[in-house]
Design goal:
Blueprint lengths: L3 H5 L45 E6 L3 H9 L4 E9 L8 H5 L6 E8 L6 H10 L8 E2 L2 E2 L6 E4 L2 H20 L8 E4 H4 L3 E2 L32
Parallel strand pairs: 6-7
Antiparallel strand pairs: 1-3, 1-6, 2-3, 2-8, 4-5
Helix pairs in contact: 4-5
Length: about 230
């Protein structure tokens, strides 16, 4: 049941996943038809990527702050923000925020596995948000803020499952609820729909360096390798 507080803020109904038959119809054309180069890295945000590059999709609350974290990681060759895991084709930001598309705010991370490993990327993922909160991160409430990892390679899947289990065990010893992160192959989660241009690298110096960041972490470090 939604609280009076949630109703006053218009959150009522935003923490229930929309049924596919009830999702908004969307559109045929993408909302970002011509992606510009990455504002910080200068690389393409849509590929083609350098040979050997892998792509991992991570959802950890508001995608502005999530993307900023990853473009600073050595070995990451490109990032972008978009919508994934839902039903509505080519949704707008406003549609995703209505909780009637089924998508979660997602960051695409393209990286060189010879420089940064899946384990290193996932350590950042687990530590920099709260994966036990369900359809929210801190004061950001709604299905679009749910935690998720969508992998594209067997190596990524193995790392995702191993790190999720390990971090879940550590959180349990600290009294946290089980991890609610959605774990799926990208092919099952559905297409990554690029968000509008103003969302891409939103927190860069060229756009909004003092903009909003939500990092509702548990404060529990991921355990070091034995």
């Amino acid at each position: 049941m939604n609280s009076i507080f949630d109703q006053l803020l218009g959150r009522s109904g935003k923490t229930t996943m929309v049924a596919p038959d009830d999702a908004l119809p969307g559109r045929e054309a993408p909302v970002l038809p011509a992606p510009r180069p990455h504002t910080v890295l200068g690389t393409s945000i849509a590929g083609p990527w350098p040979e050997g590059t892998r792509v991992l999709y991570l959802a950890m609350g508001c995608f502005w702050g999530a993307e900023e974290i990853y473009w600073q990681v050595p070995g990451v060759v490109g990032t972008a923000v978009g919508y994934m895991g839902g039903t509505t084709p080519n949704p707008t930001y406003e549609e995703v925020c209505s909780a009637r598309t089924g998508h979660t705010e997602t960051t695409l991370v393209a990286y060189d596995p010879a420089t940064v490993s899946e384990g290193e990327l996932l350590k950042i993922f687990w530590e920099r948000h709260d994966p036990t909160q369900g359809f929210r991160q801190g004061n950001d409430v709604g299905t679009q803020y749910r935690s998720a990892v969508y992998w594209t390679t067997p190596e990524q899947e193995a790392a995702v499952r191993e790190t999720a289990e390990r971090y879940g065990e550590v959180l349990a010893t600290k009294g946290y609820d089980p991890i609610t992160t959605e774990l799926k192959p990208a092919a099952e989660a559905g297409p990554f729909f690029y968000a509008e241009d103003y969302h891409q690298q939103y927190l860069s110096d060229a756009k909004n360096p003092h903009g909003y960041r939500c990092h509702a972490t548990t404060g529990v470090p991921y355990p070091d390798a034995a």
